[in-house]
């Protein structure tokens, strides 16, 4: 087909063709595409002129496609499907009907804190969407967000790249976790006990503990570090099996593990600054409707943490 002839085709007419093909009625097709019956008849006449064929003719059972219309139908239906799925669907985001997977970068502690409340909210407001959690080194987070492989990063990335957008969700405090079988430590832990007992320290690519490490240094407290691990979830099991070990962890983590009955939490012997948990996203997706919706959902879910929304 000549290029000039291609430019003569109004793409809106393809939606008219598609509706007539499915509805077999000028009235019903007009209602579907939002036209009056007169405007629909005019659009059909334009289609007939363009393709030099009647395309749809009246029969006792409705508007039937001609042989040429039947020949054109597969290609036009495919074009309309691609437009709806790959173009129109990107212009808006309707959570109740959307079918997509959201990918979040977070640590195992982040999964423990964020996923249960977020899953409840997502299943309520976007029932056909799913979640995927990935743990990647900090230097790779920006590339994951830029490429769209991940939608958001959630956590305490104190050295996150400056060109990422970020939003504070809530502040976390620290507690010290002790085995319930460690009878030497009661409801509080003394500085002497804190310095004498051996510690488990969680080390991440971007240490969330940098602030409280500095606080210990400022107070001249030296921790007797026995084990460093990148995994928060291993800590309570290790303390249960080795009651002489202790660990200083975020409050929510300590609360969850204390419910298991094998460990208890006590205030650290010195005041520690809280740290902020944030969500991060790449500028490429700052105006993306689905990303905006997800960010808003997460902010609304956690802005009153720990009294998160569950309704």
From TrEMBL:
Q: Which domain of life is it from?
A: Bacteria
The HTH lysR-type domain extends over 9-66
Q: Which InterPro entries match?
A: LysR-type_TF, LysR_HTH_N, LysR_subst-bd, WH-like_DNA-bd_sf, WH_DNA-bd_sf
Q: Name one Pfam family in it.
A: HTH_1
Keyword terms of this UniProt record: DNA-binding, Transcription, Transcription regulation
UniProt-listed Gene3D superfamilies: Periplasmic binding protein-like II (3.40.190.10), Winged helix-like DNA-binding domain superfamily/Winged helix DNA-binding domain (1.10.10.10)
What the record says about family reads:
Belongs to the LysR transcriptional regulatory family.
Q: What is this protein called?
A: LysR family transcriptional regulator
> What is the native source organism of this protein?
Paraburkholderia unamae
């Amino acid at each position: 087909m000549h290029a000039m002839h291609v430019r003569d085709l109004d793409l809106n007419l393809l939606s008219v063709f598609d509706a007539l093909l499915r509805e077999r009625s000028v009235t019903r097709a007009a209602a579907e595409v939002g036209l009056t019956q007169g405007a629909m008849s005019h659009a059909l006449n334009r289609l007939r002129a363009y393709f030099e064929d009647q395309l749809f003719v009246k029969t006792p059972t409705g508007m039937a496609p001609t042989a040429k219309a039947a020949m054109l139908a597969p290609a036009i239906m495919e074009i309309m499907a691609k437009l709806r799925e790959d173009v129109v669907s990107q212009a808006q985001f309707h959570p109740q009907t959307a079918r997509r997977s959201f990918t979040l970068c977070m640590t195992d502690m982040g999964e423990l804190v964020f996923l249960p409340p977020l899953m409840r909210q997502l299943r309520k407001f976007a029932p056909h969407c799913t979640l995927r959690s990935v743990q990647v080194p900090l230097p790779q987070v920006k590339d994951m967000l830029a490429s769209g492989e991940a939608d958001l990063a959630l956590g305490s990335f104190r050295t996150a790249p400056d060109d990422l957008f970020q939003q504070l969700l809530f502040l976390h405090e620290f507690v010290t976790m002790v085995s319930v079988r460690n009878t030497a430590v009661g409801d509080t832990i003394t500085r002497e006990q804190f310095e004498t007992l051996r510690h488990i320290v969680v080390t991440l690519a971007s240490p969330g503990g940098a602030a409280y490490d500095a606080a210990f240094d400022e107070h001249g407290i030296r921790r007797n570090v026995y084990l460093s691990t990148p995994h928060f979830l291993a800590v309570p099991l290790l303390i249960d099996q080795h009651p002489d070990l202790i660990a200083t962890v975020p409050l929510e983590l300590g609360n969850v593990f204390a419910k298991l009955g094998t460990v208890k939490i006590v205030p650290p012997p010195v005041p520690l600054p809280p740290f902020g948990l944030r969500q991060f996203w790449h500028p490429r997706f700052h105006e993306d409707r689905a990303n905006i919706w997800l960010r808003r959902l997460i902010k609304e879910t956690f802005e009153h943490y720990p009294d998160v929304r569950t309704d």
